[in-house]
Structure formats: C-alpha cells, structure tokens
Amino acid sequence: MNASTFIRTLHQRVQHLHATVSADFAPLDAALLNFKPGPDSWSILECLEHLNRYSRYYNAQLAQALAQPVAAPPAEFKFSWLGRKSIETVRPENRKLQKTLARMNPNQSRLDQAVLAEFLAHQTELLALLDCARQANLGRKAVSVEFFKLLKLSIGDTLEFVVAHQERHIQQAGRVHQQLRPELA
To answer: Closest Cα to residue 55, out of 150, 135, 127, 137?
Structure first.
C-alpha cells in the first residue's frame, strides 16, 4: 500500500477519535463517565484509562523509533505477519473478547476527568508522531511489543495497531454512553 495514503488515513482516524471523545464524552460529569453497565464492564473512563496506559508505552516507543534518520523513506508499506495478527486481535470488527493484562486493566480504578484530558493529549501527540512518520521507513522493525519486549513490530504495524486498538475501545465507551439513562446524559 502507498505509505503516504496509509499515514493520511491514520491521521484522519485519529482526528475522528479526538473529535468523538471531545464531543461525546468531555461534556459528561464524573458520575456519568464512571457509570458501569455491569460489575465486570468498563466505564467510559476505564476504557480511556486502558488506552492511556497503552499510549504511555507506545507513543514513547514510536517517538524513539521515528527519531532515527532515514535517507529516503520507501513509497510502499506492507504489514508483517506479526503485525497483521496483532492488528486483527484489536480491530473493532473483531467482537471476540480479549484478555487484558492485569497492569493494563483499569477495572475498579478511581478515575476522574483528568483521564479524559490525558487521552486527548495522547491523541495530539499521536497526530504529531504521524506527521513525523511521513518521513520514516514504516517497514522498519523498531517497536518492542509491550507485553513481550523481545518481539518487535514495524513502525507501520505499530501505528495501525495503536489506532485500531483505540477505535475498538472508543466504540466500547460509545456503547456505555448509549446505555446512560436519557435523563442523565
């Protein structure tokens, strides 16, 4: 696939996530943001905190990988086998529940609206990283997988994984938002 088109599409998807969270979740008070449809379900803030925990790791890893100079970035990008498998597990269309690592599971955390502000800040940072990625070799394996650091994903695989994972959990938060009683939302 064309690398420029890939980055442009990711940029648009991240802008959409930022706009969705700003429009749909930012106006809600802390009680609504912490509403849980069930004891094992996540609230809107828990969904965002889960993403924040991943962003703290992957944004830093991507910044480090993108800081490496590239003479001439390839015009084409192709997902690796590991990248495709990783991305498939987090795509929003994949309705199979995934087991979350304990350190990444925010269930029963005490959260406030600072989580929302942090999420939006991470999105702004990711947009800047995507701008840097326009000049990168997206196929270079440079980002260690969070839960097994010996494995490395390419920069492009990682960017797609991060955005797809965010879309998955923003959709989850949207489903929680839909379950708020109309008189509360």
So the answer is: 127
Least confident of 27-41, 75-89, 142-156: 142-156
Alpha-carbon distance of 140 to 61, in angstroms, equals: 13
DSSP-assigned letter for residue 23: I
- Output the average pLDDT for the chain: 90
Q: Determine how β-strand 148-154 pairs with β-strand 141-145.
A: antiparallel
- DSSP code, position 78: -
The CATH architecture annotation of domain 3-179 reads: Up-down Bundle (1.20)
- Establish how many alpha carbons lie within 13 A of residue 118's alpha carbon, considering only the half-sphere containing its beta carbon: 18
What average pLDDT does this structure show over 132-137? 93
* CA–CA gap between residue 132 and residue 78 (Å, rounded): 18
pLDDT at 183 over 60: no
Cα distance between residue 167 and residue 147, in whole Å = 20
Mean pLDDT of 68-81: 85
